[in-house]
Design goal:
- Among the domains are: 1-85 and 191-229, P-loop containing nucleotide triphosphate hydrolases (Rossmann fold, 3-Layer(aba) Sandwich); 233-295, Alpha-Beta Plaits.
- The chain has 10 helices and 14 strands.
- It has helices spanning 50-57, 79-85, 101-111, 121-127, 143-153, 173-188, 200-206, 224-229, 275-284, 299-307, and strands at residues 5-18, 21-35, 39-43, 65-70, 73-74, 86-89, 161-165, 192-196, 209-214, 217-223, 233-240, 255-260, 263-269, 289-295.
- α5 (143-153) packs parallel to α6.
- The structure holds adenosine-5'-diphosphate.
- Adenosine-5'-diphosphate is lined by residues 16, 23-24, 26, 44, 46-52.
Length: 309
């Protein structure tokens, strides 16, 4: 069965104008679709248009042209239904320090017009592991707890889609892991996730599919797996019994990245050379291979190639 489209964007454009004059083309002819149940990552260097895109979805920025459809609702015709379908976790922590988590969630639910009997405050607090802090002032919460509370706030109206804008910018490693566990749990519970991040490793680990934008244009849109398959260069490191005499390109596409004592690191094009050829070649030089490791490259390689950053 074909999965439901939760976000469909067609020919989206955003041009910021100043005094009626064209200033910046922040988004140019963007087309993409996100399916129900996905964790979709939007990546791009600074100024690519990520915030503009999210702000359009959130109803904070008006698009110049194009169509945006969220959970089956057109953003122009049904802006309220669009707003009700998404929960946004913004970049900045904006929590009133004088309220406790329970009160904050209740206020937020009120803001979204969720009736008292329909509220699931305790369930949400449990889900983000803040049930023990439900009645503590939020100013006393740790950084991690505050981040989780931000996610909780986005969930009060039980949106089927949650959008996280750079959720881990400036957050330490331990906290990040914890945050991602929460996001994965949300996703397991059936919530579709759209996120932007600078951390390519994170996107690689978290996302089913990734869109890469650069200067407002989509430069790649594929499954994380397919994007990683685009990497042509492979790295291999060999520990050898003695120092080897080897030159660049002695074997087609083979380059020496480093050669220190008995450790040799090579880069090669995996479509043109295979590992057997390399090992045979090294063996012919009368050195023994004591140990070996390979590195397939990561999303960063794809990203750099596509954005020239
Ligand atoms: P990102 O979130 O990927 O860093 P942004 O969406 O913030 O990118 O910015 C995309 C482009 O639009 C940039 O060139 C930025 O300078 C420009 N821009 C963003 N917001 C405004 C604004 N309010 N007025 C004018 N230009 C803007």
């Amino acid at each position: 069965m074909e999965k439901k489209s939760i976000l469909s964007v067609k020919n989206l454009q955003k041009i910021y104008k100043k005094n009626g004059k064209l200033q910046t083309k922040a988004i140019e002819n963007l087309n993409l679709e996100v399916k129900e149940g996905e964790i979709f990552g939007l990546l791009g260097p600074n100024g690519a248009g990520k915030s503009t895109f999210i702000n359009i979805l959130a109803g904070l920025v008006l698009k110049t042209s194009g169509e945006v459809n969220v959970w089956g609702f057109d953003i122009d015709k049904n802006p309220r239904q669009v707003r009700a379908s998404i929960g946004i976790v913004p970049q900045e922590l904006n929590l009133d320090p004088f309220f406790n988590p329970r009160k904050l969630l209740e206020l937020q639910a009120g803001l979204y017009g969720v009736k008292k009997k329909d509220r699931i405050t305790d369930t949400i607090l449990k889900m983000v592991s803040l049930d023990n802090q439900a009645d503590s002032y939020s100013r006393g919460l740790s950084g991690g707890m505050k981040r989780r509370l931000m996610i909780a706030k986005a969930l009060v109206h039980q949106p089927p889609i949650v959008i996280l804008d750079e959720p881990t910018a400036g957050v330490d490693v331990e906290l990040r892991k914890n945050l991602w566990q929460n996001v994965k749990l949300l996703n397991k519970n059936g919530v579709s996730i759209i996120l932007t991040t600078h951390y390519l490793h994170e996107a690689q680990e978290m996302c089913d599919r990734i869109g890469i934008i650069n200067k407002g244009k989509l430069v790649a849109l594929d499954t994380t797996k397919n994007l990683l398959n685009r990497i042509e260069k492979k790295k291999i490191t060999l520990k050898l019994s003695e120092k080897i005499d080897l030159k660049d390109n002695e074997l087609e596409t083979l380059k020496i990245l480093s050669l220190n004592h008995k450790e040799l690191t090579l880069i090669y094009d995996k479509n043109r050379l295979n590992i057997d050829q390399i090992l045979n070649y090294v063996n012919k030089k009368n050195v023994r291979i004591i140990d070996m490791s390979t590195d397939d490259g990561d999303l960063e390689d794809v990203f750099v190639a596509l954005t020239n950053n």
